[in-house]
Amino acid sequence: MTRPPVIELRGMARSYPGPPPVHALRPVDLVIESGDYVAVTGPSGSGKSTLLHLLGLLDTPTGGTYLLDGVDTGSLPDKARSALRGRRIGFVFQSFHLLPYRTAAENVVLAQLYNRTPRAQRYAAAFTALERVGLGHRVDAQPTTLSGGESQRVAIARALVNRPSLLLCDEPTGNLDSRNAGTVMELLDALHADGFTIVVITHDAQVAARAGRSVSIKDGSLSEAEPDSGPHPTGSMSGVDHA
Amino acid sequence: MPSLRPARRRTADQVGVPHSRLTARDMSAEAVAGIVQRPGRAVLTMLGTILGVGAFVAVLGLTATAAGQISKQFTVLDDTTVTVQDNGPADDASPPGTFPAIGFPADADRIAERIAGVTAAGVWWPVSLPQGADFTSSLGLSATPVDNLDLLAASPGAVQAMGLSMVAGSPLSTYENASAQHVAMIDSGTARALGISPARLSDQPAVFVGGIAYTIVGVYSSAQRVVAQESAMLIPADTALADFGDPQPGIGNEDEAQMIVATKLGAARVVGAQIAAAELPTDPSRLVVASPPDPQTLQNQVGNDLTGLFLILASISLLIGAVGIANTTLVAVLERTGEIGLRRALGARPRHIAGQFLAESTALGTLGGLIGTSLGVLTVVGFAAARDWTAVLNPAVTLPAPLIGSVVGLLAGTYPALRAARTSPLAALRHAG
């Protein structure tokens, strides 16, 4: 039995009713296989965020289909979409979104609050995730005492603690200086090597260059960028001839 | 160390992921965390609820305490008082214009005092004066005669049982009674009205009643029984018999001879059961034993008006408390849009978001209710202690009082919680992003 792609988009589109109607995302076909590391680039207002929200099940497409792990998400009720979000997708945001007044470990534990993780296992899993991002010594740190890079690594730990199918990163280095950005990008590389499927939305060419595969959005239209010389296999827009 | 590889996925034709869930315990923990991270604001938010619930508990507690104190005083008096009335003989054979001899024997006082539990007892009756009789002082200092004065005949035991507080002089004595002396006691108010100075009783002032002079030998200020509420002049019983004859018997004409019996605490019932037979073994049914009416109901009615007013004030406080909680929770919802978006991204359903904020406002209300109840109880206990009273708190009111706060919090949090639940995760993430 072959494993379905993590993401399969068939003509997925998002438009906002007018007048005049706004086509935030024109129909797009895209296949992202398990273990892929894909960068989505494009200037501001190009539709990157729309794509992120659709992939993250935070928004619903107005056309086409979106299969996550082979499941057609279009027909799912909100409670199933919430469940998928909580279990299969790990979000990393530009502004970290750590809760103040909660320690690093408590912030990571938050990701296990809604998905039926037994209480007794939560902190062990959180500690493991924090170890993985190199913050095993800062589990009790308050967010205010963390540097930007550390904050983003806590957020990444929170995203991966549930071992999701997809790590969805929205400008993960947008709020970081170059040194911290480098640490975070190295961490994403390492997670990719561990087998995580990663989609990074960025306008930073350096970040995009790290990914094995890069797609760009302009004016709501998606196009596959030239494959770089990296060792990673690349998908294609048609989604048929993946290695 | 657990694996941190991506989880192995299940079959493709079903979601394969159980629905999101937020256990009650997790929800409470999140609510408490939300409250304790802003302790100062939490206290200010709870203030209205604290005051409302505190006022509620304090008002009801103070009312109950005061009522308990009043009823305690009356109960003490009830439990130590027996009255016996002379209903007259079965067949009245006395000639017209006169009345039969009083039903109580001559040594009625001593017979009663031999009953265990009796501290003092004696016979008394209101003397019915001839038409036109009034009271005038021998000193002539007060020209105005006093007519709203009751002349009471009282045996020495009755004077003792009435529990008089003497201002000057001495109570009527056994000797004065036995020798039918023309002496009298009056209350201090009447003494003042008649121009008699309690300090100058040695001058032997007299009060003329229908032409008969009675030397004032004692002035009292207050009494426990019989003459507590009225202006009265007491003369020895035997003197009254000699001067005015026997009183009219029969309950209802209010002139009949009575016996007032002061007993030890709680002995009234036992004494009441024996006294008729002890005093009049030949015809005990002629004597009617009674206890005074219970004035507690009247006292409670007086208290209720004030209680109602305070409870209205407490309700207003609670309403203000509810508005405070609603306002703060709404502000928290707006402030924490980013958090709401994050939680939605982590799998929370709208109902989980609503539940969390509702739990927060309910916890705030409950906490306010608990603090308010504690302060209310402290107020009641402190007030009672300061007055040396017994604090009375009805558990049926005090124990559920914190729940009033919970209800206030729950109602106040409903709108903000619904609003939080309706917050789009997109808008929420963009908001803080």
Global shape of chain A:
globular
Low-confidence stretches of chain A: 228-243
Helix % of chain B is 40-55%
- What's the mean pLDDT score of chain A? 87
Q: Segments of chain B where pLDDT lies below 50 for 5+ residues?
A: 9-13, 293-298
Give the C-level CATH assignment of chain A.
Alpha Beta
Structural class by secondary-structure content of chain A: alpha/beta
Q: Name the chain pair whose interface involves the most residues.
A: A-B, 56 and 44 residues
What is the oligomeric state here? heterodimer
Major beta sheet of chain A, specifics? 6 strands, mixed
Count the domains of chain A: 1
Order of helices and strands of chain A: EEEHEEHEHHHEHEHEE
Number of domains of chain B: 2
User: How much helical structure, as a percent, in the residues of chain A?
Assistant: 25-40%
Strand content of chain B: 15-25%
Name given to the CATH homologous superfamily of chain A? P-loop containing nucleotide triphosphate hydrolases
Predict the CATH topology of chain A. Answer: Rossmann fold
Distance between the termini of chain A: 16 Å
Describe this structure in words.
- The complex is a heterodimer of chains A (243) and B (433).
- The relative contact order of chain A is 0.20.
- Chain A is of the alpha/beta class.
- The model of chain A is unreliable at 228-243 (pLDDT under 50).
- Chain A contains 7 helices and 10 strands.
- In chain A, a hairpin with a 2-residue loop joins strand 4 and strand 5.
- In chain A, helix 4 crosses helix 5 (148-160) and helix 5 packs parallel to helix 6 (178-194).
- Chain A has a single domain, classed as 3-Layer(aba) Sandwich (Rossmann fold), CATH 3.40.50.300.
- Chain B is of the alpha+beta class and 433 residues long.
- Chain B folds into 2 domains: 24-73 and 297-432, no CATH class; 81-263, no CATH class.
- Helices cover 50% and strands 15% of the residues of chain B.
- Chain B has 14 helices and 11 strands.
- In chain B, strands 1, 2, 3, 4, 5, 6, 7, 8, 9, 10 and 11 form an 11-stranded mixed sheet that branches.
- The model of chain B is unreliable at 9-13 and 293-298 (pLDDT under 50).
- Chains A and B meet through helix 2 and helix 4 of A and helix 1, helix 10 and helix 14 of B.
